[in-house]
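pinning this so it doesn't scroll away 📌
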Amino acid sequence: MLHVKTRKRDLTDRLHAFGMSISYDHVLRLSSDMANAVCEHFKETDTVCPPNLKRNVYTTAAVDNIDQNKSSTTAITSFHGTSISLIQHPNEDGEGVTNAIIKRRNLSPAKAIAPLPSSYTNIFPLSSQKRGGLKVPSTSTQCSLKGDEEAVLMATRKD
């Protein structure tokens, strides 16, 4: 908790010297181990999704771009990103299946987070052709839409 609030190495190590805290290095190892366990879970399940989302619950997404200082001519004073919010709408209390708890492996001596797979960071561009419509490149990940097929058809129909 101390590290979360202050991010101060000196303070954490001083309290550790008095026996009131774990060392700053131990905090960094725990933090990197937790991050690596989450990344490993994403690789094993072949999905990137918050582990606290429940399966079999109607879920909607809100996606928006974030542009700060769009008129800037340098990347130093501007920011462009994407915000993704997932909202679950259970019909009743306790609906859905809780995902497996992500378990930490043995504490590693390393304080580094493993790199993400290239499929997480390299996104192929979409291209539009005049007569062919939008062409989406194939991926190795299989996706399926389950649930209200009528809503899916309405969302994908061409008007």
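📌 and the second one:
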Amino acid sequence: MTHWPRTVYVIDDDEHVLRALGRLIRSVSMQAVELSCVRDLLEISALDPEGCVVSDVRMPGESGLTIPRHLAERGTPLPVIFVTAMEDEEIHSEAARVEAIAFLQKPVDEDELLNALSKAVAAKPDATGGSIWHLDDFRLRR
């Protein structure tokens, strides 16, 4: 039996991608909270401690790569899965440094995202925002 995060905070500035990811997440009975920027996530006063974040990397304003640090600073480190349309090794390296659960290329493969979400349940974020899962299992798909 697959276990899922209770709530998935989806962050993307592209409304079409945001809605599609939200629909996919809801199709497997998870709650999807759709947000258009990092600031929207940080304005939520009480994040679900059993949740996780799926975020675009490059967006107007703040980069999605800052999310693990922000969550750790608030004392609510959650597993983070990054998605991007950019084939950029520098971004991939930064995602590895912040110990994301996964780093997936857009268009996102539904099975890869659902697999990463199931692994997010097992992730145990530490006080720095990192996790016990590493990007070695999730290579940038070209």
